[in-house]
Amino acid sequence: MNRRTLLKGVAAAAAVPAPALTRGGPSAADLNRFDTPGDADFPKVGGNLGNQNYSGLRRINPGNVRGLRGAWTNSVEGGLRTGNSQSTAVAVDGVLYIESALGNVIAVDGVTGQTRWRYEQTRGALTRRGVAVGGGHVFTKSNDNYVIALDQHTGQVVWERQINGYGNIEKVAVVYHDGLLFCGTNDGPRGAALAVDARTGEVVWHFWGTPGPGEFGNDTWEGDSWAAGGATPWIHPAVDPALGLTYWTFGNARGGNSSQDGSARGGQNLFANSLVALDLRTGAYRWHFQSIHHDIWDMDNVMSPVLADVRIHGRMRKVVVYGSKSGMYFILDRTDGTAPLGIVERPVPQEPRQKTWPTQPFPVQGGWTEQRVVDQPLGTSVPGDPNRAVPNYVRGALYDPHWDTPVLSIPGHGGGADWSHLSFSHRTGLVYTGFGYVAAAHSLTEAANGLRPPGEYQTGGIVAVGVSTNRVRWKRRMPYSLAHGNGILTTATDLMFIGQPDGNLLAMDACTGRELWRFQTGAAISSSPIMYRAGGREYLAVYAGGTSIPYGNSAPRGDFLWAFEIGGALGPVPAPPPPVIRRPVSGGPVEGTTVVIGRTATGATESFGVASMAPTHLRVPVGATVTFTNHPGNAGPRGVTQFFEGLFDVMLAPGESFTYTFTRAGEYFFNDPASPRSTGKVEVYGP
């Protein structure tokens, strides 16, 4: 396959000038587009087949939103406070269906909040992201690659089907349309997009993320690297019944020791990091767009694509919005993949050992977030600029290559928008997403997908972008990363709802981002709010359960399915301990007054690893003097740089020491200029 064929349409579109920013968009009457049932239901994850996460209901509006209170809450697992709850509820005919952190399915009455039925997993706990409802069934998954159909009214198993040979068919939300189930796969050496017969569970068609020999795109992989190339479609697709197409986003490429190693998989590596349009009945390839060629940063834009009909240059266009981790949206014509607002291929820095691709695509309007970490002087304000660099790392920009030396860049594989759910408002014509500032240091010394430096702040924000212009309308920084399941709902009354990892559900003005209301649910929210009508009343609902990403065990967990209405009887619950937003060091607190640089707690030899401070977490009272020593057995100079307060920055020869007296309570991170991965923290307690 030649590069000219792969980039067909992009170069021509790149010459289109950016239009002026205008307000407006399709009317709320278009909510039923993409075969969505009426406003009473929220029948699938994403709201409708276009993943628009939009409701035409109008009872809750800016004038009364402050009167929104809990109508009911259901602790669906009876008080569970562990696990990963990433599921978004769906509402059909006045009943909500939710999957718990254990992978169980619970049906809840939308008016009373009472459990109608529950299905207990028989194959162990499983992180899930949402059921599908259709044809009288509720569809879920389990471990061991099973798809399961439950009776919609009783929860009894109708059929189970094990689907092996296509990747792990476990985590991804199921999408139902007209007798077919569209199922993605995740976390495997090679994965496929699947269509399954909703009556029997039989596989109707499959499409591999990494093409095999003789298939279109196979020649974009060096040798047989395609066989373990990753590219799994680990988020649910969008469907356009009128065009007869499904739209899938495929994940990052793998190779060598990790996703950061491209040395043995030369080429563009299709269909990794790509949006692919497939015939919904046959799975036949129609077109694709690759947002990152030969990815070595785990920067796959695997977010559910959003479909919208908008006016561009005076002409109505059927578009798909694609993009997430890179902090850029690619607005594509969903009929053929061309770019009505322009996309250009720009040269990027090269690393021959990584076999990097010479160019990467950029929308001509640019991105919606920063794409280079900044060097903030030591001692400046904390937390300061959220995209600043932890000191002593080599700092880079998006798509700067790496080898054995860590290169710190942003948005990072855990930043940008990752897999939080977008919302497209028919009222404003804007697409909304929560995102994160989580810089990552990439190198082949990391076995996984990049180091999120200990001590960095993991914060985020919300951005609203015009779909007809690809220009930022407004952007607001928030105290937490909102990039992992923190979906957004917009409404016909110009409200925007999003949940935070501290348990607060927020209502904001969709036109300006101004906060209008907040409610404490009791646990972190890693799901999308929904709206539905039942019993003649209109409700807002959200599942608050929490997850380990990106805040580890510091994020509060729960099993709370909440519904809200104007004038509800339930108030907010006590706030749980908030997440710790700074990336932690390894190891628990140790009492003492000495830190040895370049050694692990039990290490007899010099180390340059992440935990190469002994101890990594020292705990002392206010007024304590701490001695930092470069171990006499180390080969050369090592040191300590305290950040971001800038209390000290010293280099020491082997055997030399430095002392510092801590006079104020707080937590003080430091790393080694000779090896910035080596990071420690002094926790100072007292008045």
TrEMBL record:
It comes from the Bacteria. One of its GO terms (molecular function) is oxidoreductase activity. Its cofactor is pyrroloquinoline quinone. Gene3D superfamilies: Cupredoxins - blue copper proteins, Quinoprotein alcohol dehydrogenase-like superfamily. InterPro entries: Cupredoxin, PQQ_b-propeller_rpt, PQQ_rpt_dom, Quinoprotein_ADH-like_sf, TAT_signal. The keyword Translocase does not apply. Residues 43-158, 186-448, 481-539 form the Pyrrolo-quinoline quinone repeat domain. This is PQQ-dependent dehydrogenase (Methanol/ethanol family). The lineage of its organism: Bacteria, Bacillati, Actinomycetota, Actinomycetes, Micromonosporales.
